[in-house]
Every structure is written in structure tokens, then in C-alpha cells.
Amino acid sequence: MKNLLAVLTSLLLALLLATSGHGAVRFGVTEDAGKYADDGGVSFFATLNDLGMTENRMVVFWDPAHPTEIQEQAFLDRSLPVAAAARVQIVFSVQPLHPTDVTSTPAVAREFADYVALLARTYPQVKEFIIGNEPNQPRFWRPQFSARGRGLAAAAYEQVLALSYDALKSVDPTIDVIGLGLSPRGNDDPLARSNVSTSPLQFIHDLGAAYRASGRTQPVMDELAFHPYPNPSSANDPLLKGYQWPNAGVPNFARIKQAVWDAFAGTAQPTFAEGDVGGGSQLLATPTVPPPLTLVLDETGWQARIPASARSAYTGRESSKTVDEATQARIYGDLVRFVECDPAVTALNLFHLVDERDLDRFQSGLIRADGSRRPSYATVKDAIAETAGVCTGAQAVWRHSTAVAGAAASFGGRAGGGARLGFGVTAKEAARFRAGIFRVRGGRGVAEGDQSWIGAALASNAPRPGLVSRSGGSVRAYWPRDVTFRPRSLAPGWYVYAVRLAASMNPARTSLLVGSPFRLR
């Protein structure tokens, strides 16, 4: 009976795979323990096999003091054959050893690209390369801003990514070049007291601007890596709470996809597939048209509290907010199933497999530092076994937007006394706005044709008949903004408020909001 059930389960999963529009999501860990293990990683990779995981992201550093010397080559030479024997796919995350290593002089970007090509030639079995790590964070990439506050990190990274893409494709065109590896958060504040960083959406915007300015006619990445960690100030938030714009977490993948569309639409760099990709039609490529961009979640984890029974295996004091182990297990199981139903996601790697012993570091593993298994070990293993990386629910559907996210206005006639008129406006992303008071005929609603005329009038700086007063400014995401007018005088009659918002990340994305007519007597 068990054998029959296993066969039926396999057939069902095969059918789901055939109709899912993309291959099964791969699961693995971001962990270097196998690389350093005394047994060459035999037990480490066997543990991945037991979990049903097939991928291991390893860090390979580049040292500009020794630009052509493969770092820790002896460990790589020893562990990679063990991984291959265990059928575990190795992903190289190639990172500068120090945050200013590839930004100190113009020539070092080329040296870094030569280094990743050297790695590709030395280890031809490795077909996935992530270029850099969290370049929107100063811990890994500096400078983030110029002395005058202008963003610098993305433009410098674009050059490194483009050179690395070309270098790797020259070695093997089938190599999967994965860009970014973005942190989920950044403050976009060059004057911040600490962690002067760039939000993921702003970084993607700046990357696109640098790409367009370069005149490049080839892609810079096949996949985009993202690290959807939870908010460190609220670790107990539900999995699907996410972040506010311009940051992004697990439920905000659509925000990342929109940012890529804003930055790269119409260029040689592919964006994410849109609509219902269940049939897989949008995932097909031709020799002249590359496939859509996909999403690699190469690093995430929820730190768990250490039970008293395992406390002796750790040192130091906990410095981060944590969840209990049962909560971590539930989150990890839900995360596996959630990402399987996003057609853009190709891989999820948890950070770590085994906890770090220093409590000031990361304790997000499936295994405690004393070697005992957390509840999350069985939860993740069961989830992978039950689904085989295939969505068993409703697939996420994404289409790019041409509007401003969450644009809304509270038209209420007069915002104050006397001649002061106005209304409130808000949005779920940063935007600029132009608003106006328009003279209309009668008290009936504004017709669609008149709305088009109103939108054109607000988009133009030229005087327009019927536009009797203007206002303009900016809207911060989630912050209500008062729009006020101080016309010299308005004759008695019927008027209407209107506002046109344009997204800061892409001014071509606009929303026009028109109120109901009101009467001045």
C-alpha cells in the first residue's frame, strides 16, 4: 500500500511540474560549514540529502592584494567533489574581501571580473555565480553615497556586474549570472548616524539608471538574488507582514518585480514574466530573446531562542530579537510553500544549516550548535518531501503597474476658511504631484473625456483655460499630505479638484484623481 501511495504521489508531482510553468523550486542552505569540514563535507552534504535539499551557496572571496589567487582553494578542491558525489549543486557567491575593494580605483572592477572568470575555468562544474553580496549595505560595499549625498553604490556595482557577466559568458555561455543579492532594507540617508545604506528599491532604480547611461546592449544578469530577512526590530511579526516601501520582505516580491520593470523595461536586460505563466509560454526563450528574469532567494533566516538544554554549546549574549523554536518551524514550513507558488522564484537557501556558537552572530539554523535538531528540521524536511518544490495552491500572478501605488485623495471641498482651498493626498510610495482647481459646467460628475483633458493640463506647465489655480509638491510614502491653494479670487460657480501623481522611481507611472464638483457662491 505504501509503495502504491508513493507511486501515485510521484505521478501527481510530475503532473504538477509539467503544468507549473517553471521547474520545481530548489532548496538549500547558505553555509560554508561543508567547505571547512574535516571530512571534506561528507556528513554536511549527507544532511542536505536527508533534508531533500540540493543546493549549497558558498562564499568565495576576492582579495585585491592577490587578485589572481583563488582564496581558500584547498578547501574548495576538497569539498566540491564531495558535493558533486552527493548531487548537491554548488553556487559561488563571489565577494570582495573588504567593502571598498572594487570601488577604490577604476581598474579593480576589471580585475574582479577576471577573477570570477578564473573561478569558472577552474571549477567548470559550478554553473551559478552570484556577483557580490548586499551591495546596498555598507558592511559589504562602500561608499554608498558621495560627500554631497548622491547615491554611488549602484552605479559602481553595475560596472562590476556587467564586466563579470561578460567574463563568465566568455568562459561558458550557459553559466547562470546572478546579480545583486540585495539586503531587504536600507535607509537612503547619507547623514544617518549608523548603517548609511540604500533601500533595495532605490538601489534597483539607480542600477537601471547606470545601465541606461552606459549604453549597454546586453543583459547584466540572468537572475536577481534577494535576501528576504524579517525586520530585525519586530522578529515576531507574521511571515507575510513584510516591510513598508521602499524596503521589501517575503510578501513584497511584487515590489521588487515592479522596481526592475521601472528600471529596465525597454532595454536589453530582461524583466520578470507577467500574467498567468501556468502554461510556461512566457518562460520560453529563443536564440535572440533571453528568458525573463527570475528570483533567487539565496539567503534568509529567522533567529530562534536557545533552549536551556543546549545553552552550554553557545558563548556570549544574544544581541537580536528572536522567535521561539516552534514559531521558527512554522515560519520555515510556510515559507517553503509560499515561495513555491511564485513562478519567478527558482531557489530558496536558508541561512544557516547549523547555528553559529557566538550568540552575537546568527542562530537561525535547523540544527543547534550542540548538534541537536530543532523542530524546524523536521518541518522543512516534511514540506520539501510533500511538495517536491512544486506549488500545490494558487500561483501568484504579477503584472507591471502604470499607476502610483496606493494613490488616494480625500476631496472634501474647502480645507480651511476664507479663500484657502484644498484637500488631502497620499500614496504607498514616494511621488511628486501637480494639483489644480478647474472650472466646470454644472454639478454633475466629470466625464471621461474631461478627465483626459484635466490630466493633460496638469502634466503641462502651460496655462490652460479652466485651470484657475495650481499647486504642487511631493508625497512621502504612507504620509498624508495637504494640498492647498490660495487663488486671488474665484468667481461664483462650479469647480472640481484634481491631482496628478507621478512615481519618484518612474515618473512615467502616474495616477490621476478627480473629485466631485463643488460650488462657490
Which key phrases capture this entry?
521 residues; single chain; 16 strands; elongated; disordered N terminus; alpha/beta; 11 helices
Overall shape: it is elongated
Kindly, what is the distance between the CA atoms of the first and last residues, rounded to a whole number of angstroms?
84 Å
Based on helices, strands and strand pairing, what is the structural class?
alpha/beta
Number of helices: 11
Average pLDDT works out at 91
Kindly state the percentage of residues in helix. 25-40%
Please explain how this structure is put together.
- This protein has 521 residues and is α/β, with parallel strands linked by helices.
- 28% of the residues lie in helices and 19% in strands.
- It contains eleven helices and 16 strands.
- An eight-stranded parallel β-barrel has the order 1-2-3-4-5-6-7-8, surrounded by four helices. Strands 11, 12, 14, 15 and 16 form a five-stranded antiparallel β-sheet that branches. A three-stranded antiparallel β-sheet has the order 9-10-13, with no helix packed on it.
- Helix 7 (200-214) links the parallel strand 5 and strand 6 (223-226).
- Helix 7 packs parallel to helix 8 (253-264).
- The longest helix is centred in the N-terminal third of the chain and has 19 residues, at 153-171.
- It is elongated and about 90 Å long.
- The relative contact order is 0.10.
Offer a concise description of the structure.
It contains 11 helices and 16 strands. The chain is an alpha/beta fold and 521 residues long.
